[in-house]
């Protein structure tokens, strides 16, 4: 990994015609940076961040260069879950969940693998509502999330995949905690998208449970925090969610928004998404 970090930095520095001296900002020796580029020594995070600024390379872009085709353990797990989720294969998902617990004996990361086990089981339950997940596991998940002062991508993904395991009261509380605890990390676009998705799904969930005050709180929260979002997909889904909420007060207006969102997806060529939302709401809009 050290060789790859230095090599990736060197490639970008040279491609932009930046000298060793310019890359260091003359804050430390060129020889130190040269040794790092050649995989001969490490570099402190502080110096590395300064160098990245000096060659105007974003940390996310640098991380992508370093990792290339080496996905993280968690991204590999997510890929495997998706593989067995679509098309749905409950037997293989259960095997995947068991493997996570088996890994505890191998690397000792009990908390990480237990949480992954719960995430996989939550995916199963999202399709098979009769699938049993013990209260102890749900409590373990809640305690972990509540214990984390800062929610980064892992915590946001974990919450996003398990929201249907939370009772309505607890769900709203955890949404509010999420906004406070992810304040720094939501600056990253992919984290911001997860947060918006959680809140929008929360609107659907709250209306389904007939908790309309909760749904309104979530709608207003989305407006206050993400009114400037450029994510067209999320804007359209939010329109459908607002329509679903409005059907409880002004059915015609609500149906209009739901149909509008579905038709936009259809006009843009997203037939699968359009069909999905039509099937979800056909009992209301037909």
TrEMBL record:
UniProt domain HTH-type transcriptional regulator Rgg C-terminal: residue ranges: 101-278
Pfam families reported in the protein's UniProt record: Rgg_C (PF21259)
Signal peptide: none
The keyword 4Fe-4S is annotated on this UniProt entry: no
GO molecular function: DNA binding
Keywords annotated in UniProt: DNA-binding
Record-linked PANTHER family: TRANSCRIPTIONAL REGULATOR (PTHR37038:SF12), TRANSCRIPTIONAL REGULATOR-RELATED (PTHR37038)
Name the UniProt record assigns to this protein: Putative DNA-binding protein
């Amino acid at each position: 990994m050290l060789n790859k970090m230095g090599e990736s930095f060197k490639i970008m520095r040279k491609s932009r015609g930046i000298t060793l001296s310019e890359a260091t900002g003359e804050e430390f020796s060129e020889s130190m940076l040269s040794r790092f580029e050649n995989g001969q020594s490490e570099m402190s995070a502080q110096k590395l961040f300064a160098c990245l600024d000096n060659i105007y390379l974003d940390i996310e872009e640098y991380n992508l260069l370093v990792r290339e085709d080496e996905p993280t353990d968690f991204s590999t797990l997510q890929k495997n879950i998706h593989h067995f989720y679509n098309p749905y294969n409950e037997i293989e998902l259960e095997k995947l969940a068991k493997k996570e617990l088996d890994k505890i004996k191998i690397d000792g990361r009990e908390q990480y693998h237990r949480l992954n086990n719960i995430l996989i089981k939550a995916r199963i339950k999202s399709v098979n509502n009769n699938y049993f997940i013990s209260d102890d596991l749900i409590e373990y998940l809640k305690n972990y999330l509540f214990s984390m002062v800062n929610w980064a991508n892992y915590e946001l993904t974990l919450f996003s995949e398990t929201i249907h395991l939370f009772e309505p009261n607890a769900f709203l509380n955890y949404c509010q905690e999420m906004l406070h605890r992810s304040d720094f990390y939501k600056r990253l676009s992919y984290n911001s998208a997860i947060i918006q998705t959680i809140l929008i799904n929360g609107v659907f969930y709250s209306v389904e449970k007939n908790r309309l005050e909760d749904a309104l709180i979530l709608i207003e929260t989305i407006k206050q925090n993400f009114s400037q979002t450029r994510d067209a997909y999320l804007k359209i889904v939010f329109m459908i969610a607002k329509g679903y909420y409005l059907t409880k007060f002004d059915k015609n207006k609500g149906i209009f928004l739901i149909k509008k969102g579905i038709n936009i997806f259809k006009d843009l060529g997203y037939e699968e998404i359009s069909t999905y939302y039509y099937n979800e709401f056909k009992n209301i809009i037909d």
